[in-house]
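To whoever is covering the structure queue this week,

Two jobs came back overnight. Logging them here so there's a record in the thread.

Job A:
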Amino acid sequence: MLWAARLSGFFSAAMLMVVLSPSLQSFPPAEAIRSSQFDSHVRFPGQIAGGARGLPFRRAPSFRIERWMEIQKSPPGRIYELGSLPPFLLVFAGHVAAIEHRWNQHGLGGDNILGSCRDLHPGPVSLLHWSGSGKPWARLGGGRPCPLDALWAPFDLYGPAAVEPSR
Protein backbone atom coordinates (compact mmCIF):
# COMPACT_ATOMS: atom_id res chain seq x y z
CA MET A 1 0.00 0.00 0.00
CA LEU A 2 1.30 3.42 -0.94
CA TRP A 3 0.37 5.00 2.37
CA ALA A 4 2.56 2.43 4.12
CA ALA A 5 5.66 3.45 2.13
CA ARG A 6 8.49 4.41 4.45
CA LEU A 7 9.80 7.93 3.99
CA SER A 8 12.81 9.25 5.85
CA GLY A 9 14.42 12.61 6.41
CA PHE A 10 12.86 16.06 6.13
CA PHE A 11 10.45 16.47 3.24
CA SER A 12 7.61 18.82 2.39
CA ALA A 13 5.76 16.75 -0.16
CA ALA A 14 5.25 13.23 -1.28
CA MET A 15 2.60 11.34 -3.21
CA LEU A 16 1.77 13.65 -6.13
CA MET A 17 5.28 14.71 -6.98
CA VAL A 18 7.23 11.74 -5.83
CA VAL A 19 8.61 10.24 -9.01
CA LEU A 20 10.27 12.66 -11.36
CA SER A 21 10.23 12.05 -15.05
CA PRO A 22 13.66 11.34 -16.55
CA SER A 23 13.88 14.93 -17.80
CA LEU A 24 13.49 16.25 -14.24
CA GLN A 25 15.70 13.88 -12.29
CA SER A 26 18.61 16.29 -12.42
CA PHE A 27 16.49 19.42 -11.87
CA PRO A 28 18.21 21.33 -9.02
CA PRO A 29 15.35 23.26 -7.34
CA ALA A 30 17.28 24.24 -4.23
CA GLU A 31 20.18 25.59 -6.30
CA ALA A 32 17.78 27.56 -8.49
CA ILE A 33 16.24 29.17 -5.43
CA ARG A 34 19.61 30.12 -3.97
CA SER A 35 20.84 31.60 -7.22
CA SER A 36 20.56 35.13 -8.63
CA GLN A 37 17.31 37.05 -8.38
CA PHE A 38 15.10 34.24 -7.15
CA ASP A 39 16.44 33.78 -3.62
CA SER A 40 14.75 36.93 -2.31
CA HIS A 41 11.26 36.00 -3.51
CA VAL A 42 10.51 32.85 -1.55
CA ARG A 43 10.89 31.98 2.11
CA PHE A 44 10.32 28.46 3.34
CA PRO A 45 8.82 27.56 6.71
CA GLY A 46 10.81 25.16 8.85
CA GLN A 47 7.91 22.76 9.00
CA ILE A 48 5.03 21.97 6.70
CA ALA A 49 1.65 21.43 8.32
CA GLY A 50 -1.31 19.35 7.17
CA GLY A 51 -3.36 19.79 4.04
CA ALA A 52 -5.13 17.77 1.41
CA ARG A 53 -4.45 14.06 1.25
CA GLY A 54 -1.51 13.24 -0.94
CA LEU A 55 -0.06 16.74 -1.15
CA PRO A 56 0.50 18.27 2.28
CA PHE A 57 1.49 21.92 2.24
CA ARG A 58 0.67 25.21 3.93
CA ARG A 59 -0.54 28.21 1.97
CA ALA A 60 1.25 30.91 3.94
CA PRO A 61 1.73 34.21 2.08
CA SER A 62 5.46 33.57 1.70
CA PHE A 63 4.97 29.98 0.56
CA ARG A 64 2.89 30.18 -2.63
CA ILE A 65 3.47 28.70 -6.01
CA GLU A 66 1.62 31.67 -7.47
CA ARG A 67 4.74 33.79 -6.97
CA TRP A 68 6.76 31.46 -9.19
CA MET A 69 4.03 31.57 -11.80
CA GLU A 70 4.16 35.39 -11.75
CA ILE A 71 7.93 35.26 -12.26
CA GLN A 72 7.40 32.77 -15.09
CA LYS A 73 5.00 35.15 -16.87
CA SER A 74 6.98 38.36 -16.37
CA PRO A 75 9.91 39.62 -18.49
CA PRO A 76 12.59 38.54 -19.21
CA GLY A 77 10.62 35.35 -19.75
CA ARG A 78 10.46 31.73 -18.80
CA ILE A 79 12.46 30.36 -15.89
CA TYR A 80 11.70 26.75 -16.84
CA GLU A 81 10.56 24.76 -19.87
CA LEU A 82 9.31 21.56 -18.25
CA GLY A 83 5.58 21.98 -17.60
CA SER A 84 3.97 22.51 -14.20
CA LEU A 85 6.15 20.34 -11.96
CA PRO A 86 9.23 22.63 -11.77
CA PRO A 87 7.44 25.46 -9.90
CA PHE A 88 6.34 22.94 -7.28
CA LEU A 89 9.91 21.70 -6.98
CA LEU A 90 11.08 25.29 -6.54
CA VAL A 91 8.47 25.92 -3.85
CA PHE A 92 9.47 22.79 -1.96
CA ALA A 93 13.19 23.57 -2.42
CA GLY A 94 14.12 19.98 -3.08
CA HIS A 95 12.37 18.64 0.02
CA VAL A 96 10.48 16.05 -2.01
CA ALA A 97 10.48 12.45 -0.85
CA ALA A 98 10.98 9.73 -3.42
CA ILE A 99 8.89 6.59 -3.32
CA GLU A 100 9.25 3.45 -5.37
CA HIS A 101 8.67 3.95 -9.09
CA ARG A 102 6.04 1.20 -9.15
CA TRP A 103 3.54 3.45 -7.34
CA ASN A 104 3.46 6.11 -10.05
CA GLN A 105 2.13 5.08 -13.46
CA HIS A 106 3.24 8.02 -15.58
CA GLY A 107 3.34 8.43 -19.32
CA LEU A 108 -0.23 7.35 -20.06
CA GLY A 109 -0.77 10.37 -22.28
CA GLY A 110 0.64 8.84 -25.43
CA ASP A 111 0.45 11.22 -28.35
CA ASN A 112 -2.82 12.72 -29.58
CA ILE A 113 -1.38 13.65 -32.98
CA LEU A 114 -0.01 10.18 -33.69
CA GLY A 115 -2.94 8.50 -31.95
CA SER A 116 -0.65 6.34 -29.82
CA CYS A 117 -1.76 4.73 -26.56
CA ARG A 118 0.29 3.25 -23.73
CA ASP A 119 -0.39 0.37 -21.37
CA LEU A 120 0.00 0.13 -17.61
CA HIS A 121 3.25 -1.30 -16.35
CA PRO A 122 2.87 -4.58 -14.42
CA GLY A 123 2.38 -4.55 -10.67
CA PRO A 124 0.50 -2.33 -8.21
CA VAL A 125 -0.26 1.25 -9.18
CA SER A 126 -1.61 4.03 -7.02
CA LEU A 127 -1.23 7.17 -9.14
CA LEU A 128 -2.23 7.35 -12.79
CA HIS A 129 -0.53 10.18 -14.66
CA TRP A 130 -1.61 11.14 -18.18
CA SER A 131 1.47 13.17 -19.06
CA GLY A 132 2.16 15.23 -22.14
CA SER A 133 -0.46 16.29 -24.64
CA GLY A 134 -2.48 13.08 -24.53
CA LYS A 135 -5.08 13.92 -21.91
CA PRO A 136 -7.92 11.42 -21.46
CA TRP A 137 -10.63 14.09 -21.52
CA ALA A 138 -9.44 15.30 -24.93
CA ARG A 139 -9.56 11.80 -26.41
CA LEU A 140 -12.86 10.97 -24.70
CA GLY A 141 -14.42 14.18 -25.98
CA GLY A 142 -13.04 13.54 -29.45
CA GLY A 143 -14.50 10.03 -29.55
CA ARG A 144 -11.08 8.36 -29.88
CA PRO A 145 -10.14 7.17 -26.37
CA CYS A 146 -7.30 4.84 -25.54
CA PRO A 147 -8.29 1.76 -23.51
CA LEU A 148 -6.96 3.24 -20.26
CA ASP A 149 -8.93 6.46 -20.79
CA ALA A 150 -11.98 4.49 -19.64
CA LEU A 151 -10.49 4.78 -16.12
CA TRP A 152 -10.95 8.55 -16.40
CA ALA A 153 -14.44 8.41 -17.95
CA PRO A 154 -16.39 8.33 -14.64
CA PHE A 155 -14.71 11.62 -13.68
CA ASP A 156 -15.37 13.35 -17.02
CA LEU A 157 -17.84 16.12 -16.16
CA TYR A 158 -18.64 16.82 -19.80
CA GLY A 159 -19.25 13.33 -21.12
CA PRO A 160 -21.21 10.16 -20.40
CA ALA A 161 -20.32 8.23 -17.26
CA ALA A 162 -19.23 5.14 -19.19
CA VAL A 163 -17.23 5.34 -22.39
CA GLU A 164 -16.24 2.32 -24.44
CA PRO A 165 -12.61 2.50 -25.62
CA SER A 166 -12.19 2.38 -29.39
CA ARG A 167 -8.95 0.35 -29.27
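Job B:
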Amino acid sequence: MRSNHHHTSNIRHFPCIAALLAVFVMAPLSLVAEERGEDDIQIVEGENRTIYEYRQNGILTMIKVVPKRGRPYYMVPADGAPHYESLDHKRQLYPQWVIVEF
Protein backbone atom coordinates (compact mmCIF):
# COMPACT_ATOMS: atom_id res chain seq x y z
CA MET A 1 0.00 0.00 0.00
CA ARG A 2 2.85 2.33 0.59
CA SER A 3 3.83 2.39 -3.10
CA ASN A 4 0.22 3.16 -4.05
CA HIS A 5 0.19 6.25 -1.80
CA HIS A 6 3.44 7.49 -3.36
CA HIS A 7 1.94 7.13 -6.87
CA THR A 8 -1.17 9.10 -5.86
CA SER A 9 1.00 11.85 -4.41
CA ASN A 10 2.87 12.25 -7.73
CA ILE A 11 -0.39 12.53 -9.66
CA ARG A 12 -1.59 15.25 -7.28
CA HIS A 13 1.53 17.34 -7.99
CA PHE A 14 1.35 16.91 -11.78
CA PRO A 15 -0.79 20.05 -12.44
CA CYS A 16 1.69 22.20 -10.49
CA ILE A 17 4.65 20.75 -12.35
CA ALA A 18 2.89 21.18 -15.71
CA ALA A 19 2.06 24.81 -14.91
CA LEU A 20 5.66 25.59 -13.93
CA LEU A 21 6.96 23.92 -17.06
CA ALA A 22 4.55 25.95 -19.21
CA VAL A 23 5.73 29.19 -17.61
CA PHE A 24 9.39 28.39 -18.27
CA VAL A 25 8.72 27.34 -21.86
CA MET A 26 6.31 30.15 -22.82
CA ALA A 27 8.14 33.07 -21.16
CA PRO A 28 11.17 32.96 -23.49
CA LEU A 29 8.87 32.70 -26.53
CA SER A 30 7.01 35.88 -25.59
CA LEU A 31 10.31 37.70 -25.00
CA VAL A 32 11.51 36.69 -28.46
CA ALA A 33 8.29 38.02 -30.01
CA GLU A 34 8.70 41.35 -28.18
CA GLU A 35 12.34 41.67 -29.21
CA ARG A 36 11.45 41.16 -32.86
CA GLY A 37 8.81 43.89 -32.62
CA GLU A 38 6.14 41.67 -34.12
CA ASP A 39 2.84 43.26 -34.95
CA ASP A 40 -0.35 42.23 -33.24
CA ILE A 41 -3.31 41.41 -35.47
CA GLN A 42 -6.77 41.16 -33.97
CA ILE A 43 -9.33 39.39 -36.14
CA VAL A 44 -13.02 40.19 -35.68
CA GLU A 45 -15.30 37.87 -37.64
CA GLY A 46 -18.76 39.11 -38.50
CA GLU A 47 -21.64 37.64 -40.45
CA ASN A 48 -20.82 39.50 -43.67
CA ARG A 49 -17.19 40.50 -43.19
CA THR A 50 -13.94 39.90 -41.33
CA ILE A 51 -12.04 42.85 -39.87
CA TYR A 52 -8.29 42.76 -39.27
CA GLU A 53 -6.95 45.36 -36.82
CA TYR A 54 -3.19 45.77 -37.13
CA ARG A 55 -1.33 47.15 -34.11
CA GLN A 56 2.32 48.00 -33.78
CA ASN A 57 3.62 48.56 -30.25
CA GLY A 58 -0.01 48.73 -29.11
CA ILE A 59 -0.99 51.47 -31.59
CA LEU A 60 -3.77 50.75 -34.09
CA THR A 61 -2.12 51.51 -37.43
CA MET A 62 -4.31 49.81 -40.04
CA ILE A 63 -7.79 48.35 -40.43
CA LYS A 64 -8.46 45.87 -43.24
CA VAL A 65 -12.02 44.78 -44.03
CA VAL A 66 -12.59 41.59 -46.01
CA PRO A 67 -16.26 41.26 -47.01
CA LYS A 68 -17.74 37.82 -47.74
CA ARG A 69 -18.57 39.17 -51.21
CA GLY A 70 -16.52 41.83 -52.94
CA ARG A 71 -12.97 43.08 -52.71
CA PRO A 72 -11.09 43.76 -49.47
CA TYR A 73 -10.53 47.39 -48.51
CA TYR A 74 -8.75 49.46 -45.86
CA MET A 75 -10.27 52.04 -43.52
CA VAL A 76 -8.18 55.24 -43.57
CA PRO A 77 -8.52 58.57 -41.73
CA ALA A 78 -10.86 61.08 -43.39
CA ASP A 79 -8.66 63.97 -42.25
CA GLY A 80 -5.72 62.79 -44.36
CA ALA A 81 -3.53 61.96 -41.35
CA PRO A 82 -0.59 59.62 -42.06
CA HIS A 83 -1.43 55.92 -41.85
CA TYR A 84 1.32 55.25 -39.31
CA GLU A 85 -0.45 57.33 -36.65
CA SER A 86 -2.89 55.70 -34.26
CA LEU A 87 -6.39 55.18 -35.64
CA ASP A 88 -7.85 54.55 -32.16
CA HIS A 89 -9.17 58.08 -31.70
CA LYS A 90 -10.07 59.00 -35.29
CA ARG A 91 -13.70 60.02 -35.55
CA GLN A 92 -14.14 59.44 -39.28
CA LEU A 93 -12.62 56.73 -41.39
CA TYR A 94 -13.44 56.04 -45.01
CA PRO A 95 -12.85 52.98 -47.21
CA GLN A 96 -9.92 52.83 -49.61
CA TRP A 97 -9.53 50.04 -52.16
CA VAL A 98 -6.30 48.81 -53.73
CA ILE A 99 -6.48 49.46 -57.49
CA VAL A 100 -3.17 47.95 -58.63
CA GLU A 101 -0.68 45.70 -56.84
CA PHE A 102 2.84 44.93 -58.05
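Note for Job B: Helices lie at 2-36.

Please reply-all if you pick these up so we don't duplicate work.
Q.
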